[in-house]
């Protein structure tokens, strides 16, 4: 058959996470590419899912999420961000952060609107903007004085904001660079937006994985910004359960209303037993979150120590479960080519950063996921040290 279709996303290929995981599976390489833990969710949480599976929680959940879970999210938001949100009108449970981001963008962005993202930008933002008829403007994060840490270029952001700017997408803690917001950043952003009608979409899926005792500066914590913000989070990262695809959107009622108009026709509702189980777990172990930074700091430090004898340059990640490695002393090759070659030849898969950028300013850096057991990290590091 020689039929073709005029694609709505002509420049979009298969996501790098699928490309690299397929290559890793095919070649038998250690997969430090796609970000998922090699360990299991807490037993107590698994037990609650089993309980609900066997006790009648198997039909549609309410469109906005089961009340017990929305209540638990509201409690957590008050405790951690000092933001009182209304569980009925301001919280919606969605199918992972991916659906949350997609629904939020469809709800807010109109044809010809401009949306600002910071490069390297997570790969789901721009296609969602394109499908909404909007235009994506990319502002590179800049590399700070230590040559490693990425930061917002405030002058570039200020210059990019104009009458057509409908939405700015933020992602701090930042995947893939680990950048975090600094004290004062939220006030700077508020000052920039004060006389605009621009909305904010804050992807905070790594909210609980920030190192060196630094706080996570959520957009929820800022009175002025909160009024124009949709915050998206995901239980996948927090509970080592990326396969469950459950997240949530917190936004003021007037934005949540619009979000729900899209959400109800995107997925309608999310797995009922998983929602009930997470609600119970949030109540029974409210400090689970506070143990995550130390848990992942140990993994990060182990991975970085194992790489000490290598020719990679690195600065330990400030957040997330990804470590950026600078390979400029090993090769000058393009990062996409190299990530694929090293998957095949040395048996370690990683994620190239240029696929998240309009301009290839981050060449010679690859992202490695350290959410792995010690043996996997040791095996991978031994292979990387041989380069
Ligand atoms: N945003 C970022 C920055 C991510 O890294 C991811 C992947 N974990 C997502 C969104 C999607 O999250 P989920 O798997 O919950 O859809
Ligand atoms: N967020 C994950 C990562 O950054 C991947 C998510 C996905 O595979 N879609 O690796």
**Coarse structural class:** alpha/beta
Unreliable stretches (pLDDT < 50, length at least 5) are none
The description of the largest β-sheet is: 7 strands, mixed
How big is the Rg? 21 Å
The helix fraction, in percent, is: 25-40%
One letter per element, helices H and strands E, the order comes to HEHHEHEHEEEHEHEHEHEHHHEHEEEH
Mean pLDDT: 96
Give a structural overview.
The chain has 387 residues and is an alpha/beta fold. Helices cover 39% and strands 15% of the residues. The chain is built from 14 helices and 14 strands. It has helices at residues 16-27, 43-53, 67-81, 96-108, 125-131, 154-160, 185-193, 223-226, 235-238, 253-266, 272-284, 288-306, 335-345, 374-385; strands at residues 30-31, 91-94, 114-119, 135-140, 142-143, 150-151, 165-170, 199-203, 229-234, 247-250, 322-326, 348-349, 351-352, 365-369. A 7-stranded mixed sheet has the order 2-10-9-8-7-3-4, sandwiched between helices. The protein is globular. The protein binds 4'-deoxy-4'-aminopyridoxal-5'-phosphate (PMP) and glutamine (GLN).
Short recap of the structure:
The protein has 14 helices and 14 strands. The protein is α/β, with parallel strands linked by helices and 387 residues long. The radius of gyration is 21 Å and the shape is globular.
List the helices and strands and how they pair.
Elements: H1 16-27, E1 30-31, H2 43-53, H3 67-81, E2 91-94, H4 96-108, E3 114-119, H5 125-131, E4 135-140, E5 142-143, E6 150-151, H6 154-160, E7 165-170, H7 185-193, E8 199-203, H8 223-226, E9 229-234, H9 235-238, E10 247-250, H10 253-266, H11 272-284, H12 288-306, E11 322-326, H13 335-345, E12 348-349, E13 351-352, E14 365-369, H14 374-385
Parallel strand pairs: 1-12, 3-4, 3-7, 7-8, 8-9
Antiparallel strand pairs: 2-10, 5-6, 9-10, 11-14, 13-14
The site of glutamine has 5 residues, from loops.
């Amino acid at each position: 058959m020689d039929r073709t279709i005029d694609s709505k996303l002509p420049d979009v290929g298969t996501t790098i996470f699928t490309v690299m995981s397929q290559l890793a599976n095919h070649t038998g390489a250690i997969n430090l590419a796609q970000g998922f833990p090699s360990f299991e969710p807490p037993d107590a949480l698994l037990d609650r899912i089993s309980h609900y599976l066997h006790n009648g929680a198997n039909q549609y959940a309410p469109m906005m999420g089961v009340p017990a879970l929305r209540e638990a999210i509201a409690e957590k938001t008050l405790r951690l961000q000092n933001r009182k949100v209304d569980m009925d009108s301001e919280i919606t449970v969605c199918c992972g952060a991916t659906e949350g981001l997609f629904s939020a963008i469809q709800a807010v962005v109109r044809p010809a609107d401009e949306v600002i993202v910071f490069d390297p930008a997570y790969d789901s933002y721009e296609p969602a903007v394109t499908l909404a008829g909007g235009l994506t403007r990319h502002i590179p994060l800049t590399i700070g004085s230590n040559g490693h840490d990425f930061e917002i270029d405030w002058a570039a952001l200020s210059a990019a904001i104009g009458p057509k700017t409908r939405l700015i997408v933020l992602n701090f803690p930042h995947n893939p660079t680990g950048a975090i917001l600094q004290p004062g950043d939220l006030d700077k952003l508020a000052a920039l937006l004060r006389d605009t009608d621009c909305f904010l979409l804050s992807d905070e899926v790594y909210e609980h994985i920030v190192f060196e005792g630094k706080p996570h500066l959520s957009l929820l914590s800022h009175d002025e910004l909160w009024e124009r913000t949709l915050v998206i989070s995901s239980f996948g990262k927090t509970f080592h359960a990326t396969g469950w695809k459950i997240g949530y959107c917190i936004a003021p009622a007037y934005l949540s209303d619009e979000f729900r108009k899209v959400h109800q026709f995107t997925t309608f509702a999310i797995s009922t037993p998983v929602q009930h189980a997470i609600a119970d777990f949030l109540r029974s172990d409210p400090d689970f979150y506070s143990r995550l930074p130390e848990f992942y700091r140990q993994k990060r430090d182990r991975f970085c120590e194992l790489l000490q004898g290598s020719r990679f340059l690195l600065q330990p990640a400030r957040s997330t479960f990804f470590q950026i490695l600078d390979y400029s002393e090993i090769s000058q090759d393009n990062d996409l080519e190299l990530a694929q070659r090293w998957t095949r030849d040395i048996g370690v898969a990683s994620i190239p950063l240029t696929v998240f950028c309009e301009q290839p300013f981050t060449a010679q850096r690859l992202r490695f996921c350290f959410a792995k057991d010690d043996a996997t990290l040791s095996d991978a590091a031994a292979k990387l040290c041989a380069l």
